[in-house]
């Protein structure tokens, strides 16, 4: 019987297998940030161990950095960043600190450097590590004790998840993005729908996505509860990687591409579960509730709790969100628009926002935060920052920013945002803040009208 892509990559990395025990997996790339690494390095220090493969380990400062640069005023954040710097210096780990041209959100910099490649196992003490699966590898978040294990041994004990195929047939209609697709998928299968699975996204609509779009989709796999999400590599993947600083070159490149072409699910492979979605029926999608599965088409109304799968959760969400059932989503007024994060903070996202904002004015507080300093540089080379500032938006330095309340970019209690990030839990963007997850295009149009809006409505 044939094998799925996830099974192929997994098997390639098994260092040790024993009955009744998790597999011991070799890890090809370990990404590190300031929030989940301090105790892991402490553990190494106490055991007198070095980092086994500093050359396969890379760190960045992202969660705690202010996007208007200056000293970090919050003491917890400051200590976290200073600790990462000390640890990376002591253990010989490459770090991209604030002020460095390579700094950025951890899941943006791996792909941008060409470190993230097909067929790899990639881990990070961060749930959105699933982003890297867009290149056709197995990438997942791990806890701090596992971070220590990987630092010490470059391996990780793990049980192999089951396999799920999400087959997306047809093409996304114009104006419908990767973000709308993944929000619709999560609304369909639920925030627990992917639990215990590695999801492979397949089908015509997935093949037609850019690498940026594929990363957006894989990024939110974890919001459906999946362990990881991946997409088979193809010409789009190879074209994205070619020429990047860590991509192979010359004969090595040719050999790598030949191997990467083998990274597909065999025709006769069987998935444990298959979910089907028709891309042609999708429209811009927004969330109305307090988990990423509580979403609906922008053209719909705030649902009645009794019409949802979980009426109690929906009622509570509507109360927190300050929404009344039956209100058209297009009538929901927002105070703040946030464009950024590892979900939608890449150059393609910023171009889409600029296309909407060009020649228009924003009526809300609008933060546009590049996912990395390289994205910032590229956006500025294209003059996108001028479009943003002319429209009245704020153009910032790279970081996680308002994706989560771990730095100065937060919502005030009761404030409502349209946000291109990936989580809308209570308090995610600041205590009492209310978050609607949207695509970059919807974020930009919303900034123009002050209500949830798609560009086609302008
Ligand atoms: C802080 C970090 C551990 C966390 C994660 O694991 O995802 C964060 O990045 C998030 O998005 O909530
Ligand atoms: S941008 Fe948001 S989701 Fe991504 S790593 Fe940072 S906090 Fe987590």
What would you note in describing this structure?
- This is 3-isopropylmalate dehydratase large subunit.
- Keywords: 4Fe-4S, Amino-acid biosynthesis, Branched-chain amino acid biosynthesis, Iron, Iron-sulfur, Leucine biosynthesis, Lyase, Metal-binding.
- It catalyses: (2R,3S)-3-isopropylmalate = (2S)-2-isopropylmalate.
- Heterodimer of LeuC and LeuD.
- The structure is a single chain.
- This protein folds into 3 domains: 153 residues, Aconitase, domain 3, CATH 3.30.499; 120 residues, 3-Layer(aba) Sandwich (Aconitase, Domain 2); 173 residues, Aconitase, domain 3 (2-Layer Sandwich).
- 32% of the residues lie in helices and 17% in strands.
- It contains 16 helices and 19 strands.
- The strands form 5 sheets. It has a 5-stranded parallel β-sheet with strand order 5-4-3-6-7, sandwiched between helices.
- Helix 3 links the parallel strand 4 and strand 5.
- The chain is globular and about 55 Å long.
- The model has no long low-confidence stretch (mean pLDDT 98).
Keywords:
458 residues; alpha/beta; Aconitase, domain 3; Aconitase, Domain 2; 3 domains; five-stranded parallel beta sheet; 16 helices; globular; binds 3-isopropylmalic acid; binds iron/sulfur cluster
CATH fold-level label of the largest domain: Aconitase, domain 3
The strands making up the biggest β-sheet line up spatially as 5-4-3-6-7
CATH-derived architecture of the largest domain: 2-Layer Sandwich
Low-pLDDT ranges: none
* Rg, Cα atoms, Å: 21 Å
What small molecules does the structure contain? 3-isopropylmalic acid, iron/sulfur cluster
Specify the helix fraction band.
25-40%
Which CATH C-level class of the largest domain is it?
Answer: Alpha Beta
Biggest sheet overview:
5 strands, parallel
Would you tell me the structural class of the helices and strands?
alpha/beta
Count of the domains = 3
- Give the amount of beta strand, in percent: 15-25%
Backbone shape:
globular
């Amino acid at each position: 019987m044939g094998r799925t892509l996830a099974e192929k990559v997994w098997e390639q990395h098994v260092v040790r297998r024993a009955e009744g025990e998790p597999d011991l997996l070799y890890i090809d790339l370990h990404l590190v940030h300031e929030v989940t690494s301090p105790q892991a390095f402490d553990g190494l220090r106490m055991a007198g161990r070095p980092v086994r493969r500093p050359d396969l380990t890379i760190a960045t400062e992202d969660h705690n950095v202010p996007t208007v640069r200056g000293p970090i005023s919050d003491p917890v954040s400051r200590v976290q960043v200073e600790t990462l710097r000390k640890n990376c210096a002591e253990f010989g780990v490459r770090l991209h600190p604030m002020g460095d041209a390579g700094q950025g959100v951890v899941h943006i910099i791996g792909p941008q450097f060409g470190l993230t490649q097909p067929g790899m196992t990639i881990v990070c003490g961060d749930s959105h590590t699933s982003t890297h699966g867009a290149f056709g590898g197995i990438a997942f978040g791990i806890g701090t004790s596992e971070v220590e294990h990987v630092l010490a041994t470059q391996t990780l004990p793990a049980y192999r998840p089951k396999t799920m195929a999400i087959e997306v047939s047809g093409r996304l209609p114009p104006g419908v993005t990767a973000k709308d697709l993944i929000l619709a998928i999560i609304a369909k299968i639920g925030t627990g729908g992917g639990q215990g699975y590695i999801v492979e996204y397949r089908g015509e609509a997935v093949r037609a996505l850019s690498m940026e779009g594929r990363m957006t989709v894989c990024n939110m796999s974890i919001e459906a509860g999946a362990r990881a999400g991946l997409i088979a590599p193809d010409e789009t993947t190879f074209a994205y990687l070619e020429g990047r600083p860590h991509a192979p070159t010359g004969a090595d490149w040719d050999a790598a591409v030949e191997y990467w072409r083998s990274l597909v699910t065999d025709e006769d492979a069987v998935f444990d579960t298959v979910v089907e979605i028709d891309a042609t029926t999708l429209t811009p999608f927004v969330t109305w509730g307090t988990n990423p599965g509580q979403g609906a088409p922008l053209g719909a109304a705030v649902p009645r709790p009794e019409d949802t799968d979980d009426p109690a959760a929906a009622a509570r969400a509507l109360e927190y969100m300050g929404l009344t059932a039956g209100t058209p989503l297009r009538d929901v007024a927002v105070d703040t628009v946030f464009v950024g994060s590892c979900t939608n903070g890449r150059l393609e996202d910023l171009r889409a926002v600029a296309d909407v904002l060009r020649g228009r004015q924003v009526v809300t507080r609008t933060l546009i935060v590049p996912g990395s300093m390289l994205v910032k540089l590229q956006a500025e080379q294209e003059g996108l920052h001028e479009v943003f500032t002319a429209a009245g938006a704020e153009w910032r330095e790279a970081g996680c920013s308002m994706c989560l309340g771990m730095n100065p970019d937060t919502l005030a209690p009761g404030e409502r945002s349209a946000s291109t990030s990936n989580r809308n839990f209570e308090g995610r963007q600041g205590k009492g803040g209310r978050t609607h997850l949207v695509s970059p295009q919807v974020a930009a149009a919303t900034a123009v009208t002050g209500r949830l809006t798609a560009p086609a409505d302008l």
